[in-house]
Backbone:
């Protein structure tokens, strides 16, 4: 049993599987050139979904994404793309986008603020919108936002360009932050949170792609890309104060702006989210990006996780599980806040020897340690590089109902926006936590632990288990026990964390046998 179990552990720690599962695709928009789609599910009414795409398209579904109605978004501040959708706990949707100030005719100077429009307002329409970061003469770009359900505060971050496209070293780009306490009508003065300014050339040396998320205790977290690296900042007081020095997460080989055949441009900008559910992984931070560390023609999708609020990050986990030499790119991550499941959507060329492209969804239900890959697109598409394809995809998940959204191209200038009806039920769950009998439950206490720590196994029949401990980087640090039999009369195992050599920090225990296993997360004080 010992050999079998730890062979299973090796698979568990470093391998993902592909599931053959058919998901119905729904065409949302197939005329004009829509791209950069965004989507959000109302968590209190999952049948109600809002989606959007460049530059001013908004779509609504009231039947869980099976059918869609389309309209154009308007605002006196203008609508200039980069759509971002979020929702609050009162059935309101928020559409963030760039401005197109009608009083300014020179691009990109007209993008002088970030606009937030709310739906529904008192007349069941989109509001005209409030705005953040108004700064005439400067361009505001690539905003994203998050809602804090505990405080009803909305946070948004974006890049400000002193002079977009300038090669003058005196012109810079910075990550800005603002918040609203009145449903997006007014916003706090914009604050620069990036310590290292980038250039204005909209390339790897530009600070770009800031995505905020809220922690399980109300923290504000932000990640972005700059100079072949991923950086992170945080605030524990609602965005009033931030770290003096940004935290480096990982290198991004060949940068966030890299080349993919068939696309006019492609980026691997980081996406950040936090598990705020009541799962055993509550509080875990996940950052997702793509880069070319494995070769100039081998883009891969990665996830790194933090168990301590972003101070330390695990070694990157490769999400796509195809063979080397295939391109996987332009990903987006979300956490299902009902159960802590992690989803990553990305474009994938594992099945083709040319630029034909599929769309894949990776799912983790063990806290981002392993991912199962699913092909969610029904047919491949062939992009061409002479037309703009967009810079991102998006995904939303509520209670196992997952709605990815992406762009396709038919080998011509026509782009299309699709979603897929993805619903995970207990019958198809593949988490290692569910491979065992349903009566098997495990607990660890106290958590955090100072000295003595106890693992309790709630089991009806005898079961023999082994366990190992891994640190935040997924490195094995302790062979905890081998082939211990737990029963109704012997349900627990205790050990001293200090005498076992565990220093203060976050750890993961992998406990099980060759048939099933479970992940326990705990802290040592």
Residues:
């Amino acid at each position: 049993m010992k050999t079998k179990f730890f062979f299973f552990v090796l698979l568990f720690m470093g391998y993902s599987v592909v599931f053959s599962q058919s998901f119905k695709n729904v065409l949302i928009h197939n005329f004009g050139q829509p791209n950069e789609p965004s989507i959000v599910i109302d968590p209190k009414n999952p049948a109600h979904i809002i989606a959007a795409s460049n530059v001013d398209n908004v779509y609504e579904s009231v039947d869980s994404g099976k059918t869609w109605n389309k309209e154009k978004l308007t605002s006196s501040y203008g609508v200039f793309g980069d759509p971002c959708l979020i929702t609050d706990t009162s059935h309101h949707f928020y559409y963030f986008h760039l401005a197109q100030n009608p009083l300014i005719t020179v691009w990109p100077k007209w993008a002088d603020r970030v606009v937030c429009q709310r739906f529904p307002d008192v007349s069941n329409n989109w509001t005209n919108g409030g705005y953040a970061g108004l700064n005439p003469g400067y361009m505001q770009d690539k905003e994203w936002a998050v809602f804090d359900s505990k405080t009803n505060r909305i946070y948004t971050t974006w890049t400000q360009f002193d002079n977009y496209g300038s090669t003058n070293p005196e012109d810079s780009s910075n990550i800005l932050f603002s918040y609203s306490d009145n449903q997006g009508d007014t916003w706090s003065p914009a604050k620069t949170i990036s310590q290292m300014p980038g250039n204005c050339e909209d390339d790897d040396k530009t600070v770009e792609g800031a995505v905020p998320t809220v922690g399980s205790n109300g923290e504000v977290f932000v990640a972005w890309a700059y100079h072949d690296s991923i950086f992170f900042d945080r605030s524990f007081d609602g965005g009033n104060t931030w770290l003096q020095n940004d935290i480096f997460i990982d290198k991004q080989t060949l940068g966030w702006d890299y080349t993919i055949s068939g696309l006019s441009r492609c980026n691997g900008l980081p996406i950040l989210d936090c598990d705020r559910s009541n799962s055993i992984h509550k509080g875990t931070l996940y950052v997702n990006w793509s880069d070319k560390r494995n070769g100039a023609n081998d883009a891969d999708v990665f996830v790194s996780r933090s168990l301590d609020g972003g101070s330390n990050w695990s070694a990157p986990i490769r999400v796509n599980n195809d063979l080397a030499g295939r391109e996987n790119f332009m990903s987006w991550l979300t956490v299902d806040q009902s159960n802590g499941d992690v989803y990553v959507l990305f474009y994938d060329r594992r099945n083709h020897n040319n630029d034909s492209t599929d769309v894949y969804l990776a799912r983790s239900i063990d806290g981002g340690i392993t991912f199962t890959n699913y092909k969610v697109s029904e047919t491949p598409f062939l992009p061409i590089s002479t037309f703009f394809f967009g810079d991102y995809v998006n995904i939303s998940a509520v209670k196992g109902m997952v709605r990815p959204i992406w762009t396709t191209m038919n080998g011509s200038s026509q782009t299309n926006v699709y979603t897929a009806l993805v619903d995970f039920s207990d019958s198809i769950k593949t988490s290692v936590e569910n491979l065992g009998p349903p009566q098997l439950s495990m607990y660890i206490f106290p958590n955090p632990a100072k000295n003595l720590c106890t693992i309790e196994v709630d089991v009806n029949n005898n079961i023999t288990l082994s366990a190992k401990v891994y640190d935040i980087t997924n490195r094995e640090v302790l062979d905890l026990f081998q082939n211990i039999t737990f029963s109704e009369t012997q349900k627990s195992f205790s050990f001293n964390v200090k005498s076992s050599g565990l220093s203060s920090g976050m750890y993961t225990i992998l406990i099980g046998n060759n048939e099933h296993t479970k992940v326990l997360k705990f802290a040592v004080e």
Q: What stands out?
A: The first strand starts at residue 18 and ends at 19. Confidence is low (pLDDT under 50) at residues 1-17, 427-439. The radius of gyration is 23 Å.
